[in-house]
Write a structure and sequence with these properties.
The chain is about 75% helix and about 5% strand. By secondary structure, it is mainly alpha-helical. A hairpin with a 3-residue loop joins strand 1 and strand 2. The C terminus is likely disordered.
Length: about 250
């Protein structure tokens, strides 16, 4: 039960620099400015918002860190091109740090919801070039089966190429944010060459269906693949509590 002092505690509000940063961002959006468009100088912004240049510098620095503004020597302030990597990196850090450790069950729920739709859309929207990139991603995984560490990255890349083929960048952003977590899950599962080959076989079923543009078969193949990964992860977690012998056995199942 909270005390009176706790209930009356005043939470700190945004600083002046933070408020000015939001005003600058609002100006960019209201004026429908595009990446590369010039912005007023720091002096002009200070005059417009009625604040000191120190406050403007702090506000601009925060927007530069977020990719909203770019500073170029001799050119001045420009509207930045916000990279999807910034979004993905932020979400990835949240998943890996603020989530109290990796819980693949939660990741699996999101993947199942996301990737079944991704593979269905890939069947509908993929260009011939997209299909070739997906096929090449699968071939790279086959070529790297001897290295479990390498396979973890190549496995995730196959799924990313499917997301690219949807031509919806939001799918790519979300999957990219899961990249570090998924690779960590692969490594944490002590991915053996046998498991790598098994994953590649499941990828082959997905690939065959996508190349035929058979959405129903692709969704079924992806669902089986994701369920298999989740089941193996659960087995590995259970084996870790039973000692190294069980862990070694589970890694090759």
């Amino acid at each position: 039960m909270s005390t009176l002092a706790e209930s009356q505690r005043i939470l700190p509000g945004p600083t002046l620099a933070e408020m000015v940063a939001e005003k600058i961002l609002g100006k960019i959006l209201a004026d429908r400015m595009s990446p590369g468009d010039p912005l007023p100088s720091a002096r002009e912004l200070g005059e417009e918002f009625g604040v000191s240049r120190t406050v403007i510098r702090e506000a601009v620095s925060s927007l530069v860190a977020r990719g909203v503004i770019e500073t170029r020597s001799g050119v001045g302030l420009r509207v930045g091109s916000v990279s999807t990597a910034l979004v993905s990196d932020a979400l990835s850090l949240f998943l890996r740090i603020n989530n109290g450790g990796l819980d693949y069950r939660q990741v699996h729920e999101v993947r199942h919801l996301l990737e079944l739709e991704v593979v269905r859309l890939a069947c509908e929207r993929a260009t011939d070039t997209d299909l070739e990139e997906i096929r090449r991603a699968h071939e790279r995984m086959l070529a790297g089966l001897a290295s479990p560490e390498k396979v973890a990255e190549l496995d995730v890349d196959f799924h990313r190429q499917l997301a690219v083929a949807t031509h919806n960048p939001l799918y790519v952003v979300v999957l990219d944010s899961l990249h570090g977590v998924l690779v960590e899950a692969r490594r944490g599962a002590v991915l053996s060459p046998n498991r790598g080959k098994h994953a590649a076989d499941l990828h082959q079923r997905v690939l065959d269906a996508v190349l035929r543009r058979d959405g129903e078969a692709a969704v079924a193949a992806m669902g089986s693949h994701l369920d298999d990964v989740a089941a193996h992860w659960a087995k590995m977690q259970e084996a870790r509590t039973d000692g190294s012998t069980e862990l070694s056995r589970a890694a090759t199942d």
